[in-house]
Amino acid sequence: MRILIAAAGSRGDVAPYTGLGAALRHAGHHVAVATTEPFAPLVRDAGLDFRGLPADPRGHGGATDRRELMRTAAAFITELGQGFADAAADAPDLLLLSTTTAPLGWHVAEATGTPSIGVYLQPTAPTGDFPPVVTGSRSLGRPANRLAGRFALRMTDRVYEQAVAKLRRRLQLPPESAAATRRQRERANWPVLHGFSTALVPRPADWRPGLEVVGNWWPHHDPSGRLPAGLEDFLTAGPRPVLIGFGSMAAGDGERLSEIAVRALRRAGLRGILQSGSAGLAADGDDVLTVGDVPHALLFPRLAAVVHHAGAGTSAAALRAGVPAVPVPVGADQPFWAGRLAALGAATDPVPFRSLTAERLADALDRVVRRQGHTLAAARAAQHMATEDGAARTLETVAGG
């Protein structure tokens, strides 16, 4: 079967699909991933075909207030929609659509008659169990959570409206709003597989049929890969260090964050690894090392704790390794995942990014490393996650579809 996976956003919004794609390829399918140009190496390194989408999320950063975030998101989505039809031009047999690409992919599927399945990294369907992931982690009560969830979907429809109108014209489809298409898919119980662990988000009982939580899809990495020699030397030279990194977040804030990180580590008496990321974290010293991109699966089991932005992928990777965390959410769905980690006991209470100081970080590190409760909770979650196989569940769905 010829399968096209479509995903867009930050690295964390794309990397999990390289592992899923590799599993599908191993099962005998021909797999291509449609995403933006910066992630072409990730796709090709996994042995998958790359299809370019003509937008770059890095060009839409810097928004601070909600209205500006809506405008920049709409601009990114509109760029994305311009090339979506081209990515599917080679007539795949199945479209696998991420949270970001589904509201565009539905129209391509309609125009071409191609079956499609959602492969989401975030829970977007309204539920009484929790509020929308974009509003944080604090429950509003079951009725209000559901109401807020429906409102969040309407706001998402607005972001996609212009892109959908342009895409439908290009595909020679009659006009239809983004909201109408979404409601049609919901009524048809369009299948969505959610690639996160039930340790973090059990399937809500009030979800409609067709929505399933299958377990994580892990980014592809070479099973024979090794950590860089300098990092390996640092790991073996003393007690387990703490990793501090913010992934694709906090661009341009590296100098301030690096200073906070080093001061906090030394105040807590811990060795540390700074992962440069988009922020450009950097520091030198006998007790601190700076690294670039390193597979989480190889590094995280060797750590005492992880300080991270609480992106879905990093949150899951730390849990999988049984390593406790200090979550410092920056925005988007990160406060939601940070709250989930803390509720499990596998992390300290979140430290909001704008409130981060060396003193607050040192105190959180002291708690998470020197008290066993967080480590034990992370280990229990790791045992639960080891029983899940998101790729295998997805293969079953694809084979049965």
TrEMBL record:
The entry's keywords: Transferase
Zinc-finger recorded as keyword: no
GO terms for MF: hexosyltransferase activity; UDP-glycosyltransferase activity
Erythromycin biosynthesis protein CIII-like C-terminal domain ranges (all copies): 285-388
GO biological process annotation, one example: vancomycin biosynthetic process
InterPro entries noted in UniProt: EryCIII-like_C (IPR010610), Glycosyltransferase_28 (IPR050426), GlycoTrans_28_N (IPR004276), UDP_glucos_trans (IPR002213)
Domain of life where this protein originates: Bacteria
Residue ranges occupied by any Glycosyltransferase family 28 N-terminal domain in the UniProt entry: 3-67
UniProt signal peptide: none
Record's protein name: UDP-glucose--sterol glucosyltransferase
Species of origin: Streptomyces fungicidicus
Lineage, uppermost ranks: Bacteria, Bacillati, Actinomycetota, Actinomycetes, Kitasatosporales
